[in-house]
From TrEMBL:
It comes from Littorina saxatilis. The keyword Hydrolase applies. The keyword ATP-binding does not apply. Residues 40-428 form the Sulfatase N-terminal domain. InterPro entries: Alkaline_phosphatase_core_sf, IDS, Sulfatase_CS, Sulfatase_N. It comes from the Eukaryota. It holds the Pfam family Sulfatase. One of its GO terms (cellular component) is cytoplasm. Gene3D superfamilies: Alkaline Phosphatase, subunit A. This is Sulfatase N-terminal domain-containing protein. Keywords: Calcium, Hydrolase, Metal-binding, Signal. Its cofactor is Ca(2+). Belongs to the sulfatase family. Residues 1-25 form the signal peptide.
């Protein structure tokens, strides 16, 4: 597939592009789908802490055959970004299609309906459009940030299912359930287990997949032909890495590599750094030398964590495969839109950094797939769209459905774009652009529908697109050694095809306003020559004009919620 770009420089940063597609003989498959499909179903898949460390994203050492199979039948967005690298704020953002400045959610304890506005969520919109809406697992961030009940009943027809087997004494209790070399149980970050020997002989994501399969199996009997919006959120590879031990065999430690850049970026302002307290608090990390705040961890622990993250990802791939196979087996695959994303990325020791709470590329870039039957894939009979592939049996890994068209694009897109995209594809009302300061507007979007890109990929029709993503993350102090009870600094970052540009500025957490003149740090990474973000060149005179231009663009984009 060949993509041709004509870039329009300036503050709008729009681009006009065309794609030479392998799809032929059809004038406009997207429009054909929309006219032929009456009230299609939606399967909304989201995975916690998942960066694009997948086979379908070119990670040849990763064994993720079920996600790869879905990707082959989807549009794979290679440069997709969340608006906030933390679970609650990110999920609130893409489920309301509002940017964090509009949701005012910067932590895990704030509910947007209390502090910002009574925004109509994506599942709420589908519920109001006559759909059965069901949440399984971590879709909204549970707890205070979704009103204590996953925004039920406003967003969901049925009570969300979180996998309640065992309660606090069961698989959800991660403390001191990890077997150690002394034969005792410990609170470890790296926690491979024999599932048959766990207290309830099940792990959380297995339970969520079990529920999802049963939901699809029994759906038609309970709801007849009423369409569904079915959201499934898996937990791994979120810390702690508790997964079936057999998945480690896919990633021998001798095949795991260390990050190439184990020290913080040259010229990085201290405010950009996160100390990853969530990792440091576990016993296996406390037992090794992990200097505060910049590390690094010892090499053997880095390798163990990278192995655990990979094994956890393959474990979740299997659960996703079970859900996709059930969708196919029970006759829904040919009339179901499927989206798949991570809620943010994760740093795996690159620059000596861990966790997600940063504005670095690895923290905000996510996997992002959009599947539309008979548009991004060829028609297949029931049972032949998503056959389950067991990664633990190597011969099965080759058994991938050939229904896919293998569509992809490196146009920059954002998580807030999902809401209007799914709405347009499903034929329900598409939210219009939010007014500035639209806190009293319940139904609107601060993203853009990706349908024009899908049409471009399947018909080569030109499309204009603002090739920029905006993200942000707060800090409580300019010094990683210190803290404050309230947000006092906000880091705003812009990503375009050439650069990542970030400003860390004073933030008034009660008025929700930034002061661009009170600057704590500035970062500029040249992605065309420094894709790993190893060198901050913001202070170099050769880039002064670039910094001035991107600074204006960043301020305009954040203030106008672009």
């Amino acid at each position: 597939m060949k993509m041709l770009f004509r870039v329009e420089f300036g503050l709008c940063a729009c681009i006009l592009f065309t794609v030479t597609s392998s799809v032929s003989g059809r004038q406009d498959p997207v429009s054909e789908w929309k006219s032929a499909s009456s009230r299609p179903n939606v399967l909304f898949l989201v995975v916690d802490d998942l960066r694009p460390k997948l086979g379908c994203y070119g990670e040849t050492n990763m064994v993720t055959p079920n996600i790869d199979q879905l990707a082959a039948s989807s549009v794979r967005f290679d440069r997709a970004y969340v608006q906030f690298a933390l679970c609650g704020p990110s999920r609130t953002s893409f489920l309301t299609s509002r940017r964090p400045e509009s949701t005012r959610v910067f932590n895990l304890y704030t509910y947007w309906r209390d502090v910002a506005g009574n925004y109509t969520t994506l599942p709420q919109h589908f519920k109001q459009s006559g759909y059965i809406t069901q949440s399984v697992g971590k879709v909204f961030h549970p707890g205070k940030s979704s009103g204590g009940d996953d925004d039920y009943p406003l967003s969901w027809t049925n009570k969300p299912y979180h996998g309640d087997k065992g309660g606090n004494s069961g698989y959800k209790n991660n403390s001191e359930q990890c077997p150690g070399p002394d034969g005792k149980l410990h609170d470890y970050a790296v926690c491979p287990v024999n599932v048959s020997q766990t207290p309830h002989k099940i792990l959380e994501d297995i339970d969520l997949a079990d529920f999802s399969v049963d939901f699809l199996k029994n759906y038609r009997h309970k709801y007849q032909d009423q369409p569904f919006f079915f959201a499934v959120g898996f937990h791994k590879p979120h810390l702690i890495w508790k997964y079936p031990v057999e998945y480690e065999a896919l990633y021998p430690l001798t095949h795991i590599t260390l990050p190439k850049d184990k020290t913080k970026p040259e010229g990085m302002p201290p405010v950009a750094w996160y100390t990853c307290t969530g990792l440091r608090e576990h016993q296996d990390i406390m037992d090794v030398n992990f200097p505060f705040p910049y590390g690094p961890l010892p090499d053997d622990m880095i390798l163990k964590i990278r192995q655990a993250y990979s094994a956890s990802t393959s474990y979740v791939d299997a659960q996703i495969g079970r859900v996709l196979s059930a969708l196919d087996q029970y006759g829904y695959a040919n009339n179901t839109i499927i989206t798949f994303i991570g809620d943010h990325g994760w740093n795996l020791g690159e620059h000596g950094e861990w966790c997600k709470q940063t504005n670095f590329e690895l923290a905000v870039r996510i996997p992002y797939l959009v599947h539309v039957p008979n548009v991004t894939s060829r028609f297949r009979q029931r049972g032949h769209n998503f056959p389950f592939i067991d990664a633990l049996h190597p011969k099965q890994v080759q058994k991938v459905s050939d229904a896919g068209l293998h569509l992809s694009t490196d146009v920059i897109v954002e998580a807030v774009d999902l809401y209007p995209t799914i709405s347009e594809l499903a034929g329900v009302d598409v939210p219009s652009r939010c007014p500035l300061n639209g806190y009293n507007t319940a139904f609107c979007t601060e993203g853009s529908s990706l349908v024009s890109i899908l049409k471009n990929l399947t018909t080569a029709a030109p499309v204009q697109w603002e090739n920029i993503a905006y993200s942000q993350y707060p800090r409580w102090s300019p010094d990683p050694h210190k803290g404050s009870p309230s947000v006092t600094i906000m880091g705003y970052t812009l990503r375009n095809p050439e650069y990542r540009y970030t400003e860390w500025v004073y933030y008034n957490h009660t008025a929700y306003t930034m002061d661009w003149t009170q600057l704590y740090g500035r970062e500029l990474y040249v992605h065309t020559t420094d894709p790993a973000e190893d060198n901050n060149v913001a202070a170099q005179s050769a880039y002064q004009a670039v910094v001035e231009q991107l600074s204006k663009q960043l301020h305009q984009g954040i203030e106008n919620r672009e």
